[in-house]
Write a structure and sequence with these properties.
Elements (H helix, E strand, L loop, with lengths): L10 H5 L3 H8 L8 H11 L3 E5 L5 E4 L6 H9 L4 E5 L4 E8 L6 E8 L5 H46 L3 H11 L8 E8 L5 H12 L3 E5 L6 E6 L4 H11 L4 E4 L3 E2 L3 H15 L6 E3 L12 H12 L7 H16 L2 H8 L3 H14 L7 H14 L19 H5 L2 H12 L8 H10 L4 H8 L3 H15 L8 H12 L23
Parallel strand pairs: 9-11
Antiparallel strand pairs: 1-2, 1-5, 3-4, 4-5, 6-8, 6-9, 6-10, 7-8
Length: 509
Amino acid sequence: MAGQGGVGDSPAEDAGSPAWARELLDHLRPTGRDVRRVVAWLAEAVRGTAALQDDTGTLVAGTRMPLDESLVADILAGRIAAAASADEVSHLRLVRVEFPKPAAAGVLAVARPEPFDRRSSDILTHTAQVVEVLLRARESSAAGRRLKRATSDLRLAILQLLMVEDTVSARRVAAGLWPGLLDTDTACVYVLEGNAAERDRLLEECLGVTGDRALVVRCPAMDGHVIIVTTGDAANAALRSIVDRNPGTLLGGSARQSLARTATAYGQAVSALAVARVRPDKAAVYAERNRPHRLMDPAALREWTARVLKPLDTLPHHTRAELLATTRLGLEFTAVSAAKVLGVSRNTVRARMERVESLLRTDFSDLTVRATVHLALSTQISLADGQVDHDGAHQVRARLGDLLAGPALGSWARELLGRLDSDARDLRRTLRGWIAAGGNAERAAQAMAVHAQTVREHVRSAEPVLERQLIASGSDLYEVVLAHLATGELEHPVLLRDDPGHPDAPVHG
């Protein structure tokens, strides 16, 4: 029988451990687990042709060959485990192979010119067993990948619910897989920034150091970002350790916020990344420096906010929360980025913002309007229920001008903008013109009779002086806009233009 030996076989090995058995076992190693390679090896080992097909007749591996349909049906039905046939040109063997569900079984077929001897029969039998193992392993791996993908999608869904302030639904969804994760009123948001190609590995590291104590999500808007929502206090040090181990990564963190303010916390974490870039340890937590709303009269600010947002009070609670959350993100970031974070289309974001714009009867293309509405939204989320008593006699009908006229805010605004005065290029004039032009460098350049590139360079030069990002729309820019309003360098925006009873409505002579 030596003349009929297969790959690497010899008469001496036939009596002991045949080489084909070792070669077959090699296909079970992690680097060699491929059903198609095993079937190809089988054909070579028996010097014939091999094919593996499932219960529908679909070829899984090997070379298709004509098979007796009645024999295949008997094997698939379990009436027989194997079958053989022969004609003038070839000898055929069929063996049942168990497939993972939903397929019940398949057929491994081998045809060769010579009759099957003991060696070729043994190879076929053992190969069928190896194929079954590999099919189960492949299904297990596929199931693992599906579970991992489903878990990732679930984490993103929870984050998106938090972003629109639907904390009840977010807790309900999280409870199934991570009991207790959101059983808290407050949380911090971190954003880990790294190479986009390394994000999956960084995400796994985040999961490893936080365990089930944090919500770890691939940022849908930025390819290099991982978002971490954590309710504990130990995550800061654990996440910083990832930055220490991975050069080129950055970590930005928010101040502790209520779960309903997850979108605000996310914006703070992104803002902190700008500080982390210049820090030696490449990590930073958002600092609650003097913000304009902190320098305003609290009662007057709450009353003013309630009046500005009152047109939305007639909406159903869920609709109102959805519109406010979308507008808040849309003012902080671009419509495209906000859409990705919320898991909706950019047209949906624009439609929601246009609806708010219509309800407030104002124009979001005006940067002073955006800054003013952003102020109202930032104040609104700090209120217990988002409303105050509109009917109480003690309430003062505050105007935006009243809020901006306070001495503390005035001092802050003059100090902030005064930093620009030492630059001979008159950055202050350029910045004022750029804001008046809605942040459009071309329109600002035309109004000031300069080149658009000059406007862009001046605005970029103002950023480190003011310690705020201006090109990217968001909280930093709106603070600078409010400073211009407080110093009287920009006209106050028109809100609720069709409501003559509102303090900020335009006055008609």
